[in-house]
Structures are given as structure tokens and as C-alpha cells.
Amino acid sequence: MLTDWAADGFALGGLFIAAFGAATVLPFQSEIVFAGLQAQGLWPLWWLVVVASVGNTLGSVVNYGMGVWVEHYRHRRWFPASEAQLDRAQRWYARWGVWTLLLSWAPLGDAITLAAGIMRTPLWLFVALVGFAKTVRYIVFAWLAAGFIG
Fold first, then answer.
1. CA-CA distance, 59 to 26, in Å (whole number)?
2. Which residues span the domain enclosing 56?
3. Please, is 129 exposed, middle or buried when counting C-beta atoms within 10 Å of its C-beta (0-12, 13-18, 19+)?
4. Which of 32, 59, 81, 146 fits a disulfide with 20 by CB distance 3.0 to 4.6 angstroms?
5. What is the phi-psi region of residue 48: left when phi exceeds 0, alpha when psi lies from -120 to 50, beta otherwise?
6. pLDDT (tens digit per residue) in 55-112
7. C-alpha distances in Å from residue 11, one per residue of 43, 46, 59, 93
């Protein structure tokens, strides 16, 4: 029989893994796990928000890292954008694009976080904007789920 500590670790670890995976290109859904744990009522809601937000933000950091990595190949013939296209995109992103990270929670958020790595967004700014967006998302989700759960 599992101890309470071990059961908590498995449940919250599962939430972390689901949230982490949901932020990457992997086909994960964290909302189902989050809502299930919220419905159980065994953990403070703020703790579920923290675990899910940290996992989801770190998953986005993986996308960012993939963007930094793939940018090293920009001079290769197979790279999908020309130097002129990439330079133009970098200028646009420097002016407007960093704020799109506030949409990192949305369905195209994975692409936005990957682009942030390609465009060399400072990591501290990336984590601040994405972490804020992901946390707000889970707070809103928890509030909406509470309306259904009761």
C-alpha cells in the first residue's frame, strides 16, 4: 500500500509531467489531470496551479532550447528560411513579437516559444512572460473547473 507521501508524489508528479509534455510538441493534455486532481480536493488549489505552471513553463523552455539549437543551422541549404527572411523576422520579433509570448498558452503557443528561441529572446524575459501566461491560464482554468465541479 502506498503511503500518503508517495501517493501525493505520484499524483503531483503526474500533473507536472502532463503539464510539461503539453507545452512541448508531444500530444499531452494537462487539463484532464489538473481537473481530476482538483475534483479530488486533496491538495490546495494554489499548489496544483504552481505544479502545473512550473511544469508547463519548463516544457516551453525545451521548445525555446530547440529554437536556439535549430538556429545554428540557419546557413544550411535545407534551412526553411533565407537569411533575408530570417533577418526581417528577427527585426519584427524584436519590435512586436516578444509580447506574443503572452499567448504561449494558446494552441499555437508551441510555435511561438520555438520562434522565441530562434529569435534569441533573452531567457529571463522568455521565462517571465511565458511563466506569467501559463500561470494565469491555470488560474483561469481552475476557476472555470470549479464552476463545473462545484
1. 10
2. 4-149
3. buried
4. 59
5. alpha
6. 999 999 999 999 899 877 777 777 777 778 777 777 877 777 899 999 999 988 888 9
7. 10, 15, 18, 39
**Encoded amino acid at 66, one letter:** M
Can you list the alpha helix ranges (DSSP code H) found in 72-122?
83-95, 109-118
Residue 111 and residue 34: Cα distance in Å, rounded? 23
What pTM was estimated for this model as a whole?
Answer: 0.85
Cβ atoms of residues 22 and 30 within 8 Å: yes
User: Residue 24 carries which DSSP code?
Assistant: S
From CA 142, how far away is CA 148, in angstroms rounded? 10
Count of structural domains, the chain: 1
Cell 509534455 appears where? 21
> Cα dist. 80→12, 83, 95, 114, 144 in Å?
39, 10, 22, 14, 40
Compute the radius of gyration of the chain from its Cα atoms: 18
pLDDT, tens only, 104-132:
999 888 889 988 998 899 999 999 999 99
